Amino acid sequence: MENPQSRQVLARHGKSFYWASFFLGSRLANNAARLYEFCRFVDDLADGDLPNRQESLEDIRQSLDTGEDSTIEELSKFLDLAKECRIPLTAARELLDGMLLDQQPTEVKNEQQLLRYCHAVAGTVGLMMCQVLECKTARAKSFAIDLGIAMQLTNIARDVLEDAKMGRRYLPSVWFSEDIAIEDMALGKTSSHKPVADAIDRLLVMSEAYYNSALIGIRLLPFRSRLSIAIALRVYRQIGWVLQRKKITWWEGRVMVAAPEKIMLSLRSFSELLPLTVPSHNAELHKNLKGLSGVQ
Fold first, then answer.
1. 53 in a domain, yes or no?
2. Is the Cβ–Cβ distance between 82 and 141 less than 8 Å?
3. Domain tally for the chain?
4. Is residue 152 part of a domain?
5. Which residue segment(s) compose the domain that 256 sits in?
6. Which of 241, 252, 266, 285 is the most exposed place for a label (fewest CB within 10 A)?
């Protein structure tokens, strides 16, 4: 069933994904937009200024525990999608756990904490998207998690200033030789420019290992889905490369990928349709994720 509202949400808030969705076909694109709509809803709730946002997130989390119908329209629509596509609610619950973590002041201490957070808020989305795209190959899930983590690392790199203004610093404290106050980052103080830029560069280097893994795993997706996911990967990855091209001047705010670059990256993505034997997943990438949804 077509859902224009879901497509509108995707077009407004997920421009990279909206562009990629045109290559999915109407049915899969519609279902992918429905999943995005739910993820966007809980993300906006977590980042909003409603006084009862934590209670609302906890209510959604509890509803996911029971799987029962909800009076929250966005959750009801997601539960319908989950039934249709056999989406594991364990992944959705972990997504909510990640959103609940963000309701407290956030200062990530080390890489393990960073990666487990990225799995919660994005690796889980990769798992759910596997179901939406009707992927039947079980080992594709590990590569889908990698794509979610890679994209979240890019998100963090792009949004350092915005996150600091909300009292959040996802750059691991062990990466800094001296303590960098979140308040100084939020104000973009000159003293924080270089150490934070160096940490962002390190974050982007980390993301490359996950992007490279995900790019290999794309061949495990149904043929119709490969091009769309490859485009989404390449366009999102480009955000980090644009950051580096602009010398990681994070205090100036977000960077964007220009339309001509998106077209070029889309054309390059046709190479992912060529046959390729997919090797075993690199277990080293998941050594910090033991016990989490979809992790072997």
1. yes
2. no
3. 1
4. yes
5. 4-286
6. 252
